TrEMBL record:
The keyword Chloroplast does not apply. It comes from the Bacteria. SUPFAM superfamilies: Homeodomain-like (SSF46689), Tetracyclin repressor-like, C-terminal domain (SSF48498). This is TetR family transcriptional regulator. It comes from Schumannella soli. Gene3D superfamilies: Tetracycline Repressor, domain 2.
């Protein structure tokens, strides 16, 4: 077994873990399988992360950041109409799901299996707090871009938007109906935008 160079070791192990999770599922993923995928010893994985839980946490952070970046790019390249901004952000997220369904399924498995597995204790809670953090940031950017305010608390709207995207994601992973997902996200964009108010009104 060869050891990886220190500067890129952590990220390369995260990428190896993601490949194993996408291919084999979270239930079949272990530090040994990840080490084999990365071409390193199991001890190297243990030294870097201390166990499977912290490595899975880094995988989640990597995937959530990618989702946030996709939506953010849409926010900064779209016209200033609030419905259009929200719609394009949701579409960018959906396109990312469609391009890498295995990654999205991995996130769902982390959520569900993590509620039962001792080695993933606390990860689903941290995962969803990170989701909400990203959603709050995106909604704040929408408000600035469209020069509006939201008529409900940021956390409440973020939770609502997250529930919508979770539902669309799960439905698409099951039926792979692109058109249905697009229609649902169109309705979601209109529903979220309905909570926009002019900054001049109270």
């Amino acid at each position: 077994m060869t050891e990886l160079g220190t500067p890129s070791r952590r990220e390369r192990l995260v990428q190896a873990a993601l490949r194993v999770m996408e291919r084999d599922g979270l239930a079949a993923t272990s530090t040994r399988a990840i080490a084999r995928e990365a071409g390193v010893s199991s001890a190297a994985v243990q030294r870097e992360f201390g166990g499977f839980g912290p490595l899975a946490s880094d995988v989640v952070e990597h995937l959530v950041a990618a989702e946030g970046d996709a939506a953010l790019w849409a926010l900064i390249t779209t016209e200033n109409d609030v419905v259009a901004i929200v719609r394009e952000a949701l579409r960018s997220y959906l396109h990312l799901v469609q391009q890498r369904p295995g990654a999205e399924q991995t996130l769902l498995e982390v959520t569900l299996l993590g509620l039962r597995r001792a080695d993933l204790d606390g990860l689903p809670e941290r995962q969803y707090e990170r989701y909400l953090e990203v959603m709050r940031e995106l909604l704040a950017i929408v408000a600035r871009r469209a020069d509006i305010r939201w008529d409900v608390e940021a956390d409440q709207l973020a939770r609502f938007a997250l529930a919508l995207t979770d539902g669309v994601t799960l439905a698409w992973l099951v039926d792979r109906d692109d058109a249905a997902a697009e229609r649902t996200l169109e309705l979601a964009a209109e529903t979220i935008a309905a909570h926009a108010r002019s900054r001049q009104t109270v």
